[in-house]
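[job 4471] stage=fold_predict status=RUNNING
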Amino acid sequence: MKGLMATDDATKRIQRRAPRIAADHPHYKWVALSNTTLGMLIATINSSIVLISLPAIFNGIRLDPLQPGNVSYLLWMLMGYMLVTAVLVVTLGRLGDILGRVKIYNAGFLIFTVTSVILSVDPLHGGGGALWLIGWRVAQAVGGSMLMANSAAIITDAFPARQRGMALGVNMVAGIAGSFIGLVLGGLLAEWNWRSIFWVNVPIGIVGTVWAYRSLHETGIRRPAKMDWWGNITFAVGLTALLAGITYGIQPYGGHTMGWTNPWVLAGLFGGVATLVAFCLIENKVAEPMFPLKLFRNAAFAGGNAATLLGSIARGGLQFMLIIWLQGIWLPLHGYNYADTPLWAGIYLLPLTVGFLAAGPVAGALSDRYGARLFAASGFVVMAGSFAGLLLIPTDFSYWVFALVVFLNGLGGGLFAAPNTSIIMASVPAESRGAASGMRATFQNAGMVLSIGVFFSLMVAGLARSLPHTLSSGLTAQGVPAANAHAVANLPPVGTLFAAFLGYNPIQQLLGPDLLGRLPAANAHTLTGREFFPHLISGPFHDGLVVVFALAIVMSLVAAGASLIRSRRTGTDS
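[job 4471] inference complete, writing structure tokens
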């Protein structure tokens, strides 16, 4: 705590010495860019930093994530932050248009910093500890939503059109790269102490908060308006129900491998869709809607957001699949202990981040000169090619081939991110930039949540076809009685999938100490060793990968086409 106070005091002294740059000063735009980029980076790092740190978190709060009753904790740890940001960014972007974008953005930095402190001091264990983290992550996501919803609008207000693509490029590269950096950072910090994944936010948040309150000015157009409460409520309820229903659909129910027949899942899906339909009707009736649907009459705006959604689903699915591939299969086969796989998975995914960082700023700057559409579309074509490459390499791959393919995927994402944002933000009037920024962030964050349900469902479906036979024959070959092997093989494959995702070897838990004790020592050692489980699931996992990455290829190519759509009104590349 003394260290935090010292950091805060030092920041205040620096701010007092430095003169505040006026909004019309030529350097102000760089101040706005650097602070909003820091805000986006810290907000998006926290959407993925927990993703790879889950084994350390569950060990820290003494909770077994593979117990059936604890799967819900795991799911909400994964999707709670992303779900809240998906739901709130439009509302908070709209609120920024009304009350001031800088005011909402600054409050977001403050909330984010305070909740990071509270998360790091979780005093509970078991289910209570998990609920503490889930609840305060939701509160942290409110602050993150304020940052995400208004950063692009603040930059668009501060920069002239000729430099806007470059500035948005830097901001968006920070935003999307944050989700990749979070994987590496989470692996490194979780190796030391699970609480450190929240500590790391605190000094950055203090500096960013003081800096934002000191330096940013309201330069955008503020338009007094009434809050669209019915629109906000129906949107939040509808989107939450729909996304939660899709995510819970991957859990087994009533003897089925997945929960698509669960009445609660069906209620979430159909109820969510019905509520969103009501939301659309409300938005067409109210004078000042929070989600101005008229903006979608602009073909460039509609196409840009469609590309954002599809790209986010594909990118989210890629992250989940690569973590499973590395932590559950490749790293154990190459001699890494299960406890060390989160750290090394983050390290081995560095080429993905490097590719994104290499292409993002360059694509943003060049799109100002040559037009955004070609860069956005070509980025998706490169991504589609990288997904095809991941289908062609074997499960036990040569790392340098894998590194090249994921580098190309990051490169494609970098080519797309900034030009796509430039297309969206340039296609709306100045007074709607906060709402447009929130809409774009909604599609991006909703895509990440959707990817959990869509890609995990496809992977579970792929595993369900081949895993039972593979698991049963593999266990009986090691002397496990046929009845026990059959019982284990017919357990829902989602448990095996989560085990691989978390870097766990579930064989010891599935068989139990009594059964393992009756087997020959060599067989028991093989079953619980590093290589048996990865070898066992590698074939079924690759079957699932074929379905998952084939869909990702289709999504990427459709998104490339959506990026080329021009506004009939202007016909420009802006």
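[job 4471] summary: DSSP finds 21 helices and no strands in the chain.
[job 4471] exit 0
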